[in-house]
Amino acid sequence: MTDENIIRLYWERDEEAITATSRKYGNYCFSIANNILYNNEDSEECVNDTYERIWNTIPPQRPSVFSAFIGRIVRNIALDRYRKNVAEKRGGNQIPIILDELGEIASDSPDPEEECIRLELAKAINDFLFDLPIDKRVMIVRRYWYADDIRSIAMRLGTSENNVSVSIRRIRVKLRDFLSARGFEL
Predict the structure, then answer these.
(1) Residue range(s) defining the domain that contains residue 169
(2) Nearest 10 degrees: Cα torsion 127, 133, 134, 140
(3) DSSP 8-state class, residue 159
(4) Are 23 and 38 in contact (CB under 8 A)?
């Protein structure tokens, strides 16, 4: 079933929309959640919460890229669950490392900047990523969007873990310099 057909089912409030979403994107959602949580039960709950959130969001929203829309929702739900789990018990996995790495670039201020500045920052980051060679862009997206570990990225790209690690570190430095040159306070 096409994404447009699935979205139409949500607009019609047809519960088949959830089944179709699960069939087409269930593994995708679980993979995102599990890369963040490393817990099958919590990941499965996040996937189910994602379906509920989609149901409550469409309508009124009509996503233009359904897979990205779903990915953002499950990722945010998984990150919220991760924060809750860490608050309850100080366990460790890749997320603290990833957040520390991103902390080198972004401010850790708990209060979000004005929406306009956030949108400008997102555009600047997208511009930066667009200019990267495809393999470098894949490294960054796999690391910071999908929360893949260095070994998985290296295997996916057929390169060494050291190459991936060094490349990601260099890209973070370049991104920080790129954003600073455009006036973003980091």
Answers:
(1) 95-181
(2) -70
(3) S
(4) no
Q: Count how many domains the chain has.
A: 2
For residues 48 and 18, what is the distance between their CA atoms, to the nearest angstrom?
10
pTM above 0.70, yes or no: no
- Cis omega (within 30 of 0) on the bond before 59? yes
Token pair listed for 131: 């200019």
Instruction: Label residues 145-178 b or e (16+ Cβ within 10 Å = b).
Output: ebbbbbebbbeebeeeeeebbebbeebbeebeeb
SS (H, E, C) 22-43: HHHHHHHHHHHHHHHHCCHHHH
For residue 140, being part of any structural domain is answered with: yes
Structure tokens at 117: 């500045």
23 in a domain, yes or no?
Answer: yes
Q: Which two tokens stand for residue 129?
A: 């990523």
Residue 54 pLDDT > 90:
yes
Does the residue 186 lie in any domain? no
